[in-house]
Amino acid sequence: MPEGDTIRALAGRLSPRLTGATVTLLTGTHRAVSGEGLRVKGRRIVAVRSAGKHLLVEFDNGWTLRTHLGMTGSWRVYRPGQRWREDPARARVVLETPGVVAVCFSAPTIQFGPHDRIAAAIDHLGPDLADPPAIVDGVVIADIVSRARRSNAATASDLVLDQSTMAGVGNAVSAECLFLERVSPHVPASSLDDDTIRRLARRANRLLAANARPGVRTTTGHRTRGHRHWVYGRKGRPCRRCRSTILAAPTGSSDRIAYWCPSCQPSREEA
Ligand SMILES: [Zn+2]
Q1: In angstroms, what is the span from residue 249 Cα to ligand 1's centroid?
Q2: Which long-range contacts (CB under 8 A, 24 or more apart) does 47-50 make?
Q3: Could you count the other beta carbons within 10 Å of the beta carbon of residue 169?
Q4: Active-site positions?
Q5: Which run of H or E residues covers position 249?
Q6: What are the pLDDT tens digits along the chain (271 aa)?
Q7: Do 149 and 107 share a domain, yes or no?
Q8: 17 in the same domain as 111
Q9: Distance CA 73, CA 1 (A)
Q10: Are 61 and 49 in contact (CB under 8 A)?
Q11: Ligand 1 geometric centre to CA of 113 (Å)
Q12: Ligand 1 centroid distance, CA of 229 (Å)
């Protein structure tokens, strides 16, 4: 599933090709754009940016297109007339300019409307941890601690994944950040002290910011397949630090699978 780093990299790839260009067509199979898309025909694209896991395309008439790729969505960029590799029936958004055809396939969440309406839909998001650490350190970290105190998250894993506390974190970065900070995904979120929350936020921020570029995500520094993560996706494999067997199970209120090392990240029951 794309996380905030992937969406930031996507915005970085789309922005130079779309920003400033005039829209020749906005359509798609999604009802948000199939009719309303005409509103931006002939208008200019003024920005393409990410907000957490959301991609925003802003137009000069004050309208914005918001997509969230969920587990299944993707954006592809083609030249006009180029044959698509994906099934056109899954093209939920087609955005054309004179030089580019940008297509969003299979995204579960698509919204197209006046900027205020889009802003309201993402108003709950916490600080975007794909931002550079120099921006996130300080005031933003203090905001994250106070948001964490208001969060309904049950476990440490839920807290790191709570988009209203730390926007952009998904399952992989959550697992890696909890491992690197030696926090069990299962401990109650309410048991985490301020310093631990700050450490988790800084770590998630460094992981997302470092991976907000094209190419595969790595949290270990290694790019070879099978060596990119500490615990994520490594159920039954030996911990890279202590050789204990990595465990995986659903945790907290979500049905997401957490990955952890029971020795490096003991919860009270396991300690
Ligand atoms: Zn370990």
Answers
A1: 16
A2: 47/15, 47/19, 48/11, 48/14, 48/15, 48/18, 48/19, 49/11, 49/15, 50/4, 50/7, 50/8, 50/10, 50/11, 50/128, 50/130
A3: 30
A4: 2-3, 53, 256
A5: strand 247-250
A6: 799 999 999 999 999 999 999 999 999 999 999 989 999 999 999 999 999 999 999 999 999 999 999 989 999 999 999 999 999 999 999 999 999 999 999 999 999 999 999 999 999 999 999 999 999 988 899 999 999 999 999 999 999 999 999 999 999 999 999 999 999 999 999 999 999 999 999 999 999 999 999 999 999 999 999 999 999 999 999 999 999 999 999 987 767 899 999 999 998 654 4
A7: no
A8: yes
A9: 9
A10: no
A11: 48
A12: 13
Q: Compute how many other C-beta atoms are within 10 angstroms of the C-beta atom of residue 255.
A: 7
Please report, for the domain that includes residue 70, its CATH number. Answer: 3.20.190.10
Provide the domain limits for residue 117: 4-121
Read off the CATH number of the domain in which 139 is found: 1.10.8.50
